[in-house]
Design a protein that fits this description.
heterodimer; A: 444 residues; alpha/beta; Rossmann fold; 2 domains; 7-stranded mixed sheet; 5-stranded parallel sheet; 43% helix; globular; disordered N terminus; B: 291 residues; mainly alpha; ABC transporter involved in vitamin B12 uptake, BtuC; 2 strands; 74% helix
Chain lengths: 444, 291
Amino acid sequence: MSKPELSRRMLLKAGATLAATGIAPGFFARSAWAEQPPIGTWPAGVQGKEVFIGVAVPRTGSYAEQGEDELKGWQLAVEHLNSGHELMRKISPRTKKGVQGKDVKLVVADSGAKPNDAVQAEQRFITENKVVLMTGSTSSAVAVALNKLAQREKVLYTAGISGSNDTTGKDCVRYGFRQNFYGETAANAIGPVLLKAYGKGKKMAFMTPDYTYGHTVTKSMSEYLAQHGGWTMVTNQVSPLGATDYSSYLTNITNSGAEVLLNVNWGRDAVLSTQQAKQFGVIPKMKLAIPYQIPFLAKNIGAELAEDVYAATDFWWTLEDKYPLAKMFVEEFRKKYGYNPEWGAENAYMSIAMWADAVENAGTFYPPDVIKSYEAGRKLQSMVGEVYLRKEDHQLVRPVVIVKGKAPKAMRNKEDFWEVTEVVPGAALMQKPDAFGCKLGDYT
Amino acid sequence: MLSWANFGSQLFNGLALGALLALIASGLTIIYGTLGVLNLAHGAMFMLGGYTGYAAYQATGSFLAGLAAGTLAVGVLGIVLERVIIRHFYKRPHEDQLLLTFGLAIVFVEVVRWYFSSESKTVQTPQLLSGITNLGFMFYPTYRLATVGICAVALLALFFVLYRTRLGMIVRAGIEDAEMVDSLGINVDRVFMTVFGIGAMAAGFAGFTNAPIVSLAPDVGEQILVQTFVVVVIGGVGSFPGAVLGGLIAGEIISLTSMVNPGYAYVMLFAAMTLVLMLRPHGLLGTKGRE
């Protein structure tokens, strides 16, 4: 241990001497750490041959299935970064191999979709691996917690799946970014579709998971339908994340006289509540709508139950027919993992690519510069066409995809559950940047 | 949502929830009452019953075979556990017993996760019991309706064993005063083993019965364990009738509260438990002196 220390000290001395004598002033002027004080894990995290990304993803609990899909998206993205794959370079044009010439590695922990576990894991990655980027969350409660950690530790964070308005709303931070769609854009995209399909003046029932995602999605959705279509909410059944028995909620819904059931539950909770809704005869008596799509929902509940159901989503694999990048992504993913990616994987891949693009354009890992690079508003190519990040709240302006469940007979293969009916451009779906109380905070 | 129709429906739904809770809680309570071991692996046994039953159901296509397999496998596991591990802990402090059974629960859950993965498994409702039944005042899933009957039969069987057999008499005597039973020359050792087996069987039976309703996941036992504890505390630790009463009360509290505000269903459940602890520290049907 003592030897390397000695030699490093000698090296530093030699460097200092060189600098003092003015032999290599250009070298030191260009080296960022000579002029900027350390911040977060910088520069400690970028001094080796590789840089680390810390992933906290649910691999157990109600959101495990969706978490595994996301994880594959991150893994594929990192693989493509390190090999300089064409798809990665299409999204991040300055990417060659790795990021700033460094190999990228993932370190992964199971969060169980619990904010505490996620924060603990990321905190450990910051200390032990000096991660330059954190990602993960399949629950907005986790995303919000990691937002706060990111701002406090001054380590960048790009959200995994997070549907709450708060993530880039009242709980937004300078160090946090979100790629995917969320409650407000979902409601504004699927709202008109539901009004067109079911008419005005309907009675609606909601099933809402009891945390930031559930409450904000239900609020955005119910307000849209009430204001634009005169729908009335007759009941809102709030349940804890991870509930397994929905009988008492469904009994209330049965007796509510609702005509449309909007199920905001997510992950396994969505599967169970939907299956039980059928057992109780709520479906098909009421029309089911999914404001915020759940990866693998149709596979789990079966095509019969998903038939004619409208859902808003980030991505569906049949978009490969429309967008060349989607085609590349789906083919690469399918080749590696043997199934078509869900939108969690798409979001994961895209958010890593966006980060790579921001770093390459900044020309440094120095977090404040990377943030400014994110905020520059560059137009990026994505699996759903051109997108850009809104600098006021760090939310990607991107389309929302509307899908409708296919009849079992109409499915071309066993994963062909949904038909894309619309790709709604993003800009008009978003609230004003300050409408949800976003104040980004400081760069340093 | 306050209407007579909904009240009637929720009242009935509470009964259905309660019957299942009663069955799981009865296993927990007789084990604790007799052996003095608070079995934190009870939820994991509930889960194991579901999974072994699921495997047998998949293999044979018979729901009854699944039910039998789930019940017996967990019963045998209970006996083996008691013989090999748990009996060495009877004389140890309660903390050790808690750590032991908690550890066992983690092992069971992780083994199942490793073998079956974290993804949930759907257990098909048997053909005969699928569909919806019109009760007149409400429509109710036929299978859930059947579980009320299934749980009632199982509880009756437990009642018969506990109150109409020699073994049951010894068990009940053991709950009151194990030392006295021992000094009367009764082989308490064997009774303990049997009781642990029966308690485990009840958990396994309930685990598979519940599986078609909520589908299976490795952590399905964790949630139910908490509710089961509440039931046992409300009903009175070690009391079989207390477990049944506590189960029904818990079911009704969850159902009826959710009629007013579902967000408060579990809050009310714990509030009720607190109230019972304050007014009757030994539970509604528990007696002082039992631990």
